[in-house]
C-alpha cells in the first residue's frame, strides 16, 4: 500500500469518526431520550470506545513514522504528548473504577485539540493557500513536517486527522463524564 492510499484510508476513517462524534453530540443535545440512552450506557462503555480511538490513533502515528518514514516535527511531538498518556489513563481508570478518568482524558484531549488546530492552521496556510509562512517546527532540532507533507484531497493533513481524533476523544470524555453522574445518582437513590 502506498503512502497516499494509506493516508486516504486514514482520512476517511477520521472523518467518519469525527462526523459520528459530532452527530452523537447534536443528538445528545437535542433529545432527552437520547440523553437518557447515552447515560444508561455507563462510563466504562465510553472509556472503552475512547481506548479504541486512542489505540488506532497511536498505531496510525507509528505507521506514518516507522513504515512510511514520515518525519515527526516538534508540533507533532506535542500532539503525541497529549495522545499517548490517554492510552495509560483509560485502562488504569477502568481498573480502579476512577471517576476522574473522564475529566483527565477530556483535559488531555482539549490540549491536544489546541496543538492540532495550531499546527493545522500553519499547514492550511502553507500547503493549501500557498502562503509563505515560517512554520514554528522549522526552527528546532527536529525535522520540519513540511519536508514530507501529507496532503489528501487538497486540505487533509496529519494535524487535521489528529484534530478529529482529539475531538472524538473529547466528546467521548463528555459522554463518560455525564454517564458517570447518571449511574452514580441512580445507585444513590
What does this structure look like?
The protein is mainly α. It has one domain. 77% of the residues lie in helices and 0% in strands. It contains six helices and no strands. It has helices spanning 3-30, 32-41, 43-67, 74-96, 101-128, 158-188. α1 crosses α2 (32-41), α2 (32-41) crosses α6 and α3 (43-67) runs antiparallel to α4 (74-96). The longest helix is centred in the last third of the chain and has 31 residues, at 158-188. The radius of gyration is 18 Å and the shape is globular. The model is unreliable at 182-189 (pLDDT under 50).
Write the layout of secondary structure elements.
Elements: H1 3-30, H2 32-41, H3 43-67, H4 74-96, H5 101-128, H6 158-188
Helix pairs in contact: 1-2, 1-6, 2-6, 3-4, 3-6, 4-5, 5-6
The total tally of domains equals 1
What is the average per-residue confidence, as pLDDT, rounded to a whole number? 84
H-E string? HHHHHH
Low-confidence stretches: 182-189
Strand content: under 5%
Distance between the termini: 55 Å
Compute the CA-based radius of gyration: 18 Å
SS elements, strand count = 0
Largest sheet report: none
Helix content: over 70%
Shape: globular
**Structural category:** mainly alpha
How many helices? The count is 6
Amino acid at each position: 500500500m502506498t503512502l497516499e492510499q494509506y493516508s486516504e484510508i486514514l482520512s476517511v476513517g477520521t472523518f467518519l469518526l469525527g462526523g459520528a462524534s459530532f452527530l452523537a453530540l447534536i443528538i445528545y443535545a437535542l433529545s432527552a431520550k437520547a440523553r437518557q440512552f447515552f447515560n444508561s450506557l455507563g462510563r466504562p462503555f465510553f472509556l472503552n470506545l475512547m481506548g479504541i480511538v486512542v489505540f488506532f490513533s497511536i498505531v496510525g502515528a507509528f505507521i506514518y513514522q516507522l513504515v512510511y518514514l514520515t518525519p515527526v516535527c516538534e508540533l507533532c511531538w506535542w500532539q503525541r504528548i497529549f495522545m499517548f498518556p490517554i492510552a495509560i489513563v483509560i485502562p488504569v481508570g477502568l481498573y480502579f473504577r476512577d471517576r476522574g478518568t473522564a475529566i483527565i482524558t477530556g483535559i488531555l484531549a482539549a490540549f491536544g485539540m489546541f496543538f492540532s488546530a495550531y499546527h493545522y492552521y500553519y499547514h492550511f496556510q502553507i500547503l493549501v493557500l500557498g502562503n509563505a509562512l515560517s512554520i514554528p517546527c522549522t526552527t528546532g532540532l527536529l525535522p520540519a513536517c513540511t519536508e514530507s507533507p501529507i496532503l489528501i484531497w487538497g486540505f487533509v493533513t496529519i494535524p487535521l486527522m489528529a484534530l478529529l481524533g482529539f475531538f472524538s476523544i473529547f466528546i467521548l470524555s463528555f459522554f463518560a463524564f455525564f454517564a458517570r453522574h447518571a449511574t452514580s445518582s441512580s445507585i444513590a437513590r
